[in-house]
Design brief:
There is one protein chain. This protein has 469 residues and is an alpha/beta fold. It contains 14 helices and 14 strands. The strands form 4 sheets. The protein has an 8-stranded parallel beta barrel, surrounded by 5 helices. Strands 6-8 form a two-stranded parallel ribbon. It has a two-stranded antiparallel sheet with strand order 9-10. The mean pLDDT is 95. This is Beta-glucosidase/6-phospho-beta-glucosidase/beta-galactosidase. Pfam families: Glyco_hydro_1. Keywords: Glycosidase, Hydrolase.
């Protein structure tokens, strides 16, 4: 079989402001929730207005100053799309201002203009694992309905500013992650109750829908989507109890997509709220707002897991509690490698939501070694991505409408979970060590040239492996 992706398929990579930009207090930028977890999602939450502490994310890979060099390297690989995020606190440093920070707006103007030079399409996330820290301390994060207003003001500002430069938008990154890391997702304490977390999530879902409506009004030719963490689970066994437990586990994250594509809460969530004594304040206006639904569904996919009624089998993964699949191998970080899972997930989401899909994160984190001659031979990354992209093509052949593929971290960046540099995803190596030392020099890895050939051939250089490979 010859592999060839659709002619208008978007190829590229994905980055996040808080993991690449650095310059964390430059040009009027305010403190974000990410700035206050300098050691990653699992580190302590620090009030940096009161504590003298530094973190590797403060400088990160210095994309804020080096973006022309990085965009040129992305263009050399052949990118037609780059997913990135706007740092909310560059635009509204505290979050509740009525006037935006011009220096922050001007930075993204320069960035989008640089991408335009190379015909790289921006796919912009409004909120990627960060929000103004001031809104957390002074308003209680997304637990306060007032934050909806602040977010939509921010969204309206950037829509109006970049309406001629950005035609693809996303609202919230991995919106379902708030169930597992509420501080990162909705600005709530980690010991918050389920009711508090779901109320904050509701406010975020309303804000997402309001942003969709604003985008359609301000940029009629734009498309705006949501973004899910694709944590698909298979039944561990055919026991009916395991099948039903898996069904419920998948509902736990599919619910977000159901609301954002259908415009209302599904009945199974109403039962869940009732049985768990969760009372959510949903106004009539909220119900009306939720009817503004996304144009497409985007998602991340790194691994699958299993579902079972036996909670004792769960193991702590990167962020989620997972039941490992006994038939799969794992990466250095314990993430199970399942290329077929991305085909399964694409079919599942397309059948469920009946909206175009966009794979906006996928990749392999690994410890790359620089050889004496300066080369980085990351064949393991090439194998991982080859096998996943072959399955993406299979899903397209199944009839799934896939808009594009942006691999996570096309250039080495700071990991979100533990602020690690050693966990590298990139096609481009960055000379940076965990203690912050290093020249920040960029250097293509072997995978750089592999991905370049995949894009240039529109997938025809991908290798279909036999079952015994």
């Amino acid at each position: 079989m010859t592999i060839k992706f659709p002619n208008d398929f978007l190829w590229g990579g994905a980055i996040a402001a808080n993991q690449v930009e650095g310059a964390y207090r430059e040009d009027g930028k305010g403190l974000s929730s990410s700035d206050c977890t300098p050691n990653g999602l699992f580190g302590d939450i620090v009030d940096r207005n009161q504590n003298n502490i530094t973190g590797i994310k403060d400088r990160a890979i210095d994309f804020y100053h080096r973006y022309p060099e990085d965009i040129a390297l992305f263009a050399e690989m052949g990118f037609t799309c780059l997913r990135l995020s706007i740092a909310w606190t560059r635009i509204f440093p505290n979050g509740d201002e009525t006037q935006p920070n011009e220096k922050g707006l001007a930075f993204y103007d320069r960035l989008f203009d640089e991408m335009e030079k190379y015909n790289i399409t921006p796919l912009v996330t409004l909120s990627h694992y960060e929000m103004p820290y001031y809104l957390i301390t002074q308003y209680g994060g997304w637990g306060n309905r007032k934050v909806i207003e602040f977010f939509t003001r921010y969204a309206k500002t950037v829509f109006e500013r970049y309406k001629n430069k950005v035609k693809y938008w996303l609202t919230f990154n991995e919106i379902n992650m708030s169930l597992h890391e509420p501080f990162t997702g909705v600005g709530l304490a980690r010991n918050s109750t389920k009711e508090q977390i779901y109320q904050a999530i509701h406010h975020q879902l309303v804000a997402s829908s309001q942003a969709v409506k604003l985008c359609h009004e301000i940029i009629p030719d734009a498309k705006i989507g949501n973004m899910l963490l694709g944590a698909v689970a298979y039944p561990l066994t055919p026991k009916p109890e395991d099948v039903w437990a898996t069904h419920n586990e998948n509902h736990g994250w599919l619910f977000f997509g159901d609301v954002q594509t259908r415009g209302y809460y599904p009945t199974y969530m109403r039962r869940y709220f009732k049985e768990n004594n969760i009372n959510i304040n949903i106004t009539d206006q909220d119900k009306e707002d939720l009817k503004s639904t996304v144009d497409f569904v985007s998602f991340s996919y790194y691994m699958s897991c299993c579902g079972t009624s036996d909670d004792s089998l769960r193991q702590k993964g990167n962020i989620l509690d997972m039941v490992p699949n006994p038939y799969l191998k794992a990466s250095e970080w314990g993430w199970q490698i399942d290329p077929t899972g991305i085909r399964y997930l694409l079919n599942l989401l397309y059948e469920r939501f009946q909206k175009p899909l966009f794979i906006v994160e996928n990749g392999l984190g690994a410890k790359d070694e620089v050889q004496p001659d300066g080369s980085i031979n990351d064949d393991y990354r090439i194998d991982y991505m080859n096998d996943h992209l072959v399955q993406v093509h299979e899903a397209i052949e199944d009839g799934v409408e896939v808009l594009g593929y942006t691999s996570w971290g096309p250039i080495d960046l700071i990991s979100a979970s533990k602020a690690e540099v050693t966990k590298r995803y990139g096609f481009i190596y960055v000379d940076l060590n965990q203690d912050g030392s290093g020249s920040l020099q960029r250097r293509p890895k072997k995978s750089f040239y592999w991905y370049q050939s995949v894009i240039k051939s529109n997938g025809q250089t991908l290798k279909i492996k036999s079952s015994n490979e």
